[in-house]
Write a structure and sequence with these properties.
12 helices; 6 strands; 8% strand; globular; membrane; transmembrane; MtfA_N
């Protein structure tokens, strides 16, 4: 009985120490966030990263300048995240389209590019990726769409023709994949309470407050820089800003540095730096 009592006490003390350690780590994490406005760590891997095939790496180097500019160590993180993301989601074709591995790679790489500065990247508010060959009739709005996020199905929907067109031209600030993923990330951040979600949500609110300033809004409209669709509503404004941030960061930074630095803070990386 004495031995059992000692074991019980040791297990109790061990469990208590684990709880105290976990709470301390969380507290320090939020303290770091308060001081530096970013997570204490992002790309830590608990196990050996999974690597893509040489053909997949070649595809990323050719189609994703973001990936190409990463140092080798970061590329391994990017690849590991892509593999994990694809394994976590269901991909379905509609109207006769057949899902290929290249399609999965395109979609996953877009998601990982946008969440690369975040610790949690799998976006649990997304379960299904639906791909149509062209514009489709939305079951939600009963209108024709190029893409949308359906929160009830936890589904991201794309016209593949328009998704690819977004990458065919790299500097027109129009990218369907980036645009729709930002809508998803925004909703995901509202629903989740991790460090990256807090940063994304708080910074996006700061961006909207900037937009609400009459002088700033007037300057935005006079500059005629952002396409008109950006001013549809605050949700669209945020998504359009990220398209500009990704596709023409240098010009964006020169014209509207306040918005540029807020997007950089929100995504937690400097796109120009990569």
């Amino acid at each position: 009985m004495k031995i059992l009592s000692i074991i019980f006490v040791l297990v109790f003390i061990g469990s208590l120490l684990i709880i105290i350690f976990s709470r301390s780590v969380i507290l320090l994490d939020y303290l770091y966030l308060f001081i530096f406005k970013k997570p204490a760590f992002v790309h830590f891997l608990w196990r050996k990263p999974r690597e893509l095939s040489s053909l997949d790496k070649q595809f990323l180097n050719h189609n994703f300048p973001f990936y190409k500019r990463l140092p080798q160590k970061k590329k391994k993180v990017f690849e590991h995240r892509i593999i994990s993301f694809i394994a976590d989601k269901e991909f379905q074709g509609r109207d006769g389209i057949i899902i290929t591995e290249e399609m999965k790679l395109w979609v996953a790489a877009t998601a990982i590019m946008l969440t690369f500065g975040m610790r949690n990247y799998k976006l649990p508010m997304l379960e299904i990726v639906l791909i149509y060959p062209d514009i489709y009739l939305s079951t939600v709005t009963k209108k024709y769409h190029k893409g949308e996020y359906n929160p009830y199905m936890r589904a991201l929907v794309f016209s593949w023709k328009d998704f690819q067109q977004g990458y065919n031209i790299h500097n027109d600030n129009l990218n369907l994949g980036i645009h729709e993923f930002i809508h998803l990330i925004q909703i995901n951040s509202y629903k989740k309470g991790d460090i990256s979600a807090v940063i994304f949500t708080d910074t996006s609110k700061e961006i909207i407050r900037l937009l609400a300033d009459e002088t700033i809004r007037e300057n935005l409209l006079k500059a005629d820089y952002f396409r008109a669709y950006a001013f549809t509503n605050r949700v669209e404004f945020l998504a359009v800003l990220v398209e500009y941030f990704i596709e023409s960061p240098t010009i964006f930074k020169e014209k509207f540095p306040a918005f540029y630095f807020k997007i950089r803070e929100m995504l937690n990386y400097n796109f120009i730096g990569y």
